[in-house]
Structures
1.
Amino acid sequence: MTNCIFCKLINGSIPTKIVYQDEDLFVFNDINPKADVHLLLIPKKHIESMLELTDADQDLMGKMMITANKLALLHGLNKGYKTQINTGIGGGQEVFHLHIHVFGNR
Ligand code: 5GP
Ligand code: ZN
C-alpha cells in the first residue's frame, strides 16, 4: 500500500527504530507514547483493520498476540500490561493498517 504510513515504516522509506521484526510481523515504538512502554505490533501484510480479517488470518493473529506477550516481557512488563486494537472509524482507528498497541508502566 503506497499511501500507508505503516507500510512505509516496514519498507524503510520512512526510517524508524525497529524493536522487532520477522517474516510476518514488524514492531516499533509509538511516535506519541501514552505509557513508559508503548509498542505498535503490525503485520507486514497490509490489512486495514480487524474488519478485513478472514479465516486465512488465524495463524497470523495468533502469532501477533503471542509476540505481543513476548515483547511485553522483554520490556520488563512481567506484572502485566494493556493491549488495545482500535477497529474502524467506529472504534477510533486513525491509521488504517491493523495494529496492536501494547501499553505498560514499569
Ligand atoms: P490508532 O488510533 O489508529 O489505533 O493509533 C495509531 C497510532 O499510531 C497512534 O498512537 C499514533 O501515535 C501512532 N502513529 C501515527 N503515525 C506514526 C508514525 O509515523 N510513526 C510511529 N512510530 N507511530 C505513529
Ligand atoms: Zn499498510
2.
Amino acid sequence: MKPYLIAPSILSANFAKLGEEVDSVLAAGADIVHFDVMDNHYVPNLTVGPLVCEALRKHGVTADIDVHLMVQPVDDLIKQFADAGASYISFHPEASQHLDRSLQLIIDSGCKPGLVFNPATPLHYLDDTLHKLHHILLMSVNPGFGGQSFIPQSLTKLQKIRTLIDNSGFDIRLEIDGGVKVDNIRAIAEAGADMFVAGSAIFNQPNYSQVIDEMRAELAK
Ligand code: DX5
Ligand code: ZN
C-alpha cells in the first residue's frame, strides 16, 4: 500500500484569494492540490481552466496539482493543462471519444494519467487501460458540486477496484472524491483508497491543520 495522500479540493476554497488558500492548506499539511474543472456540459456547473492552474504556479505553488477534468470533449484541454503546470490529469472515460488516445496524450504531455468513475460508471473501462494508469479516481458523489454526502455503496465499488489493482500487479493509486470527512475516512481507507480528496470538510472549517491532523489520526488508527 502506498503512503496516504490528502488532497484538498479547491472547489470549496475562497476563490477571491485562491493563492493564499492553497498556501494555507499546504502549510496545514496537505500533500497535493485537487483542481476540479467543470464545463457546464459534462456536469451542470462551471469552474476554472488552465489559466487559473498557471496562476497558482506563478504564485509559487510547487506541490503536485491533481487536475480532475469533468469536461466533454476531453482532449483539447490536456495539453493546455500540462502547459499550465498540472501534475496529474484525470478524466471520465465516457466523456472521451478515444480512451487510449486521451490517456496517451496525458502521458506524452508529461503528466500522470488517471481515469474517473462516477458512482454508476461501469468498471469495464479498466479492461484495456490499467497498464497506462497512474491513478484511478472513484467518485463517491455524483460529479458537479462540493458539499454532497458520501454514497455508502462507494465502499463496495472501492473494494472492487482495490482487488482489480492488486490482482493486476500494476502500481496504481486509488483516489476517492466526494463527501470525505474525518468520521468516514478510516472506513474509506479500509475499503482500499490511498488518496483522499476533501473539499468542504477542510475549507468550510476555520482551522485547516486541525482537520488534516484529525484525518491523519484516523488514518493512523
Ligand atoms: C465534485 C468534485 C469534488 C468536490 C468534493 O464533483 O469532484 O472534488 O470538490 O467536495 P466535497 O469534499 O465537499 O464532497
Ligand atoms: Zn474532484
